[in-house]
Amino acid sequence: MEITMKKTISYSLITAALLAISISFTSCEKVSPTGVLIGNTSVDDRVKQSLTNYTYIGDNMDFDLVDSIQEYSFLVGSDSHITFDPGRLEEMIRIGIENDDLFYCHLGDIVDTKPEYYYNTKLSLYDASRLWKAKYLRQIINEYYSEEIGIYIDKRIKNTSRDSYRTWENWDLPFHPVVGNHDITHNGWSLFCDLFKTSFYEFTVTIGGQYDRFIFLDSANGTLGNFQIERIEEKALRDDYKEIRNTFVFTHTNIFRPALNEFASTYCREELYYILNKLSEWNTTIAFWGHVHAWDDRMFGEVRHITMPSMNFVDHPDGGDDLLVRVTVKKNGDAIVEPVGLHCKQRSKEELENEGYLTSTQ
Amino acid sequence: MPTLRQTILFLVFSLTVSTATAQYYSGDHQFDGENKNEVSASVTTGRNIITGPAIGNTLHYKHYFNNHWSVDGGINLQYTKGLYGYKAKGEYHIQVLSFHIFASGEYMFNHYHSYNTNENVGNMSLRFERGYWDITLGGSLIGYNMMGDHYTEPLTLTFGAHATLRPRTNDWNVGLLFRNYDDFYYENWNINWGLDFYYRFNPKLKLFGEFNVRPAGSMSQLASKYETTGKVGLIYRWK
């Protein structure tokens, strides 16, 4: 009896050890064995921090377009998993600037979590931001703002509030991401938050006196979490809309599995049904999903759901013709979706070094 | 995602290795040769981040035709969740060497009242049992109707593993489990971790219970709290 007990305990310990080893085998270098089971940051904590940051930057996100603009477009990409080369992100922004897209949305898993990767991404976004500012900003010189003060406005936005008058440094590339599961490993949230500030926010585009609403949700842990859901129910982000024409929703974790062999986890049952109901309640025009690295486009109820492919070099070394989508919102409110290709190749270590990027971990 | 497949295979392998010694077994999920009827009733309570505090009841009835065939029906009443469901299951049991193999087919219906959603699930599974462990592999087809629309998810892998401290013939036991299903739901890769126990008063009456942690997300998704539940109930068998 005692021998059997000892055997059972020892076998159980062996099993537990093998289980731990097997879990660590499944993790790539970005995921710690403990991190597989317990996130370094909870969605509740991230949303609390996001709301705090949103309080300061939220008003700066809105676009109140000048009357001469009748329609606008925006680009959506997902799962760039940037390591040393942020080339695909650079290409996305370059395409947007060439096409006069109003802003950029990213569905998460932007940068694989290492400070060096974030350094390169920050450098890349800084360069892209300079290009964007050079094209769209115009300096205001009048009796209030001298040339030395250096106040700029966006040529496409009505200058009806103080927020639309900013210094060069206070204008930012309108790049609007949500956080993905690969963005939060190894305390990655601190890196993400430093660069992108918030993972739960919304803004509006006002055009011709009509509002289009853009909602960004944090689902990096496969759940919106208790705190975010309570804030959604309390209309914590905005509650001052009179009439919404279109609502677009962006988040990382997908609802629909495009195929039998797509194993990425989705939401648990009640939450899945809650989200689908909430999208309907918001009269959502299009909901964008990432995470699963596969394309899917379907109507469910009155909502169009687009699940985006990844835009990274690993999945698509030669690029592809549909790694991004451009949504053009027409004057009558129709949202037209078209695929946009990314084709740049991954740069060599020498090429990256010549452009000032880091090429090895410190 | 090959790493997930590797994990499952590795886990199955490790469980097999850990119990690859002679064990005896009289079974707990099979006909005992005398009592053909079995009823169980349980109370479930816990908390879910979407629906808040949860309390409900489940009721099962199982009939053994012989040592091979059985049928099983159950109802689930989760009052605070507004979740009501029923299911029917048929099972075939066979012993191969020291393995007990159970092949089952199941239909389940759930009504999520708060979300005006009806869910239909079909499942076919194989369960392999030995004295100290069991593993389940199968497939589920999950479809749901809401807002006047319908969606059937691609076939979902069903998997589960369960190991116990004592052999199944013992009058008490404590076990650990992980699986992507429970009595009244089937998930995708959202894994439910649990601790279960039973105490057998006599061949006809048994107390059982479970403590389950059902995180949102899995593997690289860094699990976050979704639901914790405790369940306790009684099983009664008669001729």
Looking across the biggest beta sheet of chain A, what order are the strands in? Answer: 1-8-9-10-11-13-12
Total count of helical runs of at least 4 residues of chain B:
1
Distance between the termini of chain B: 49 Å
CATH topology-level name of chain B: Porin
Approximately how much beta-strand content do the residues of chain A carry?
Answer: 15-25%
- What is the helix tally of chain A? 9
Q: What would you call the quaternary organization?
A: heterodimer
Detailed description of the structure:
- The complex is a heterodimer of chains A (362) and B (239).
- By secondary structure, chain A is α/β, with parallel strands linked by helices.
- In chain A, 33% of the residues lie in helices and 22% in strands.
- Chain A has helices at 2-26, 33-37, 43-61, 87-99, 115-136, 188-196, 225-233, 269-281, 349-354; strands spanning 63-64, 72-77, 103-106, 137-140, 151-154, 166-167, 175-177, 201-207, 210-216, 244-250, 286-289, 296-300, 303-307, 320-329, 335-342.
- Chain A has a seven-stranded mixed beta sheet with strand order 1-8-9-10-11-13-12. Chain A has a five-stranded mixed beta sheet with strand order 7-3-2-14-15, with helices on one face. A three-stranded antiparallel beta sheet of chain A has the order 4-5-6.
- Chain A starts with a helix and ends in an 8-residue tail after the last helix.
- Residues 20-37 of chain A have low confidence and may be disordered.
- Chain B is mainly beta and 239 residues long.
- Chain B has one domain (29-197, 210-238): Porin (Beta Barrel).
- Chain B is built from one helix and 15 strands.
- In chain B, the strands form two sheets. A twelve-stranded antiparallel β-barrel of chain B has the order 1-2-3-4-5-6-7-9-10-13-14-15. Chain B has a two-stranded antiparallel ribbon with strand order 11-12.
- The longest helix of chain B is centred in the N-terminal third of the chain and has 17 residues, at 2-18.
- Chain B is globular, with a radius of gyration of 18 Å.
- Chain B starts with a helix and ends with a strand.
